[in-house]
Amino acid sequence: METPQRSDPDTITARLSSLLTLSLGALSLLRSVQAFDASTVDVFGPVTIFDPPENYTVPRTLYARTLLLNQDCETNNVLLATWENYLPNNDSHPYTPIYQSYDGGKSWSERSRVYDQVNGWGLRYQPFLYELSQSFGHYSAGTVLLAVNSIPDDLSETQIDLYASKDKGHTWKFVSHIAHGGEALPDNGLTPVWEPFLMEYNNSLVCYYSDQRDPAHGQKLVHQVTTDLVHWGSIVNDVAYSNYTFRPGMTTVVQLANGSYIMTYEFYGAVEADFAVYYRINDNPLDFNNSPGQALISIDGTVPVSSPYVVWTPSGGPLGTIAVSCGTYSEIFLNHASGAPGAWIKAETQEPISYTRSLRVLPNENRILIAGGGVLSGTNNSVTASVVDISYSPAGPKLAQCSKKGKQYQA
Ligand SMILES: *[C@@H]1O[C@H](CO)[C@@H](O)[C@H](O)[C@H]1NC(C)=O
Ligand SMILES: *[C@@H]1O[C@H](CO)[C@@H](O)[C@H](O)[C@H]1NC(C)=O
Ligand SMILES: *[C@@H]1O[C@H](CO)[C@@H](O)[C@H](O)[C@H]1NC(C)=O
Ligand SMILES: *[C@@H]1O[C@H](CO)[C@@H](O)[C@H](O)[C@H]1NC(C)=O
Ligand SMILES: *[C@@H]1O[C@H](CO)[C@@H](O)[C@H](O)[C@H]1NC(C)=O
Ligand SMILES: *[C@@H]1O[C@H](CO)[C@@H](O)[C@H](O)[C@H]1NC(C)=O
């Protein structure tokens, strides 16, 4: 797909600064061989990260996640990607693929495969990658983590496990069990756990996830905290509605310019729409249960639905920009006012709709990498990525087609 050409002053500034960065990059190349300078990456996409062979089990791929390595000079700006990978013949021991890009997301190749080392079930759903910026226990800053749902062939159990790589994702070792749950189906009354999301806070590592084990809630959102990656603290609620049938799902969290944290989630039970994207803001990311939830509604009235992902970038003004993706629009939703309601605008992207697309702010903070693994009903999914420039979009609100909404969404 072609990238729209624009020539507003922001674009010109961005081009000038990328020219500048290029010549600086050339200088440092003279000094030594450097990792690729992703700050020079322009907008592009969608490009294919992985196109599964036809014998893959439908839906083939889903749930793409990425990581920008930035803790060690020699690997800075290398991108990693992972996704749910449905092997041929319902292979009973699925692994988590780790792909790599050395050119800012334009081209990708396999780096490693993470196999289940402890349960004998495979690593099946909802992988999430994270790079430590400080040490925890025996794991130094720069360690790459994978939180993932290990699930047996018959889907009878769910186990969110933590793996660590001390060589930037080439080799992996099991670290700890985080949360164990029951049958891996998103039905009320069953007791699975889903969708881990990792974030450092206050010298701890937080694992947020969706939890169906509490008999008072069809599903709620919770977190647990560790300081050594091995021992995990007690379960703390983040979103737990009193109506049993309500199902908040899919936590992602990021810190804003004013110090507060924003959490986005999908909310089955919302008055706006089933699985409407909701958010909460709190100074303390361990205390979202005491913040009111509100629907994310853009100024043109659009209600994004399903499987959100939130990031923040310093680009776009004194308060930076919050960007949120959802499962029903190709557009992303931007807020330049620390999440104030009534300040959400819709920005076009060239990345197609996917179930739980992920966002990643690149070293050029005007740029966001969007990665998608296809849709839940997809029979021919592949994993794709696009880089968008949030500094000059959108020209104006433009209504897009809502592809699908409703109860087919997992968890
Ligand atoms: C699936 O297809 C690929 C590519 O055609 C092939 O290499 C692989 O052996 C096949 N796997 C199975 C289990 O049939
Ligand atoms: C794979 O397993 C799922 C869940 O058990 C089942 O619904 C599906 O029919 C299986 N597909 C194939 C191709 O065996
Ligand atoms: C940070 O952690 C320390 C040590 O566990 C604790 O005493 C303190 O209350 C925490 N602060 C916040 C803001 O969570
Ligand atoms: C809970 O929500 C459902 C809609 O999902 C509604 O039909 C029901 O009346 C609510 N129950 C209570 C006790 O409010
Ligand atoms: C940051 O801004 C948001 C949105 O206006 C607000 O809810 C929050 O309280 C602010 N946080 C601080 C620490 O001022
Ligand atoms: C499946 O998707 C690939 C691109 O990922 C495309 O080349 C191919 O034509 C599609 N096949 C079908 C049957 O739609």
Q: What can be said about this structure in brief?
A:
With 411 residues, the protein is mainly beta. The chain has one helix and 24 strands.
Ligand catalogue = 2-acetamido-2-deoxy-beta-D-glucopyranose
Biggest β-sheet, characterized? 4 strands, antiparallel
- Class derived from helix and strand content: mainly beta
The CA-CA distance between the termini, in Å, is 32 Å
Shape: globular
Instruction: Estimate the mean pLDDT confidence.
Output: 88
Strand content: 35-45%
Low-confidence stretches: 1-34, 393-411
Radius of gyration: 20 Å
Give the proportion of residues in helices.
under 10%
Helix segment count? 1
Task: Please identify, by name, the CATH architecture.
Answer: 6 Propeller
| CATH class descriptor name | Mainly Beta
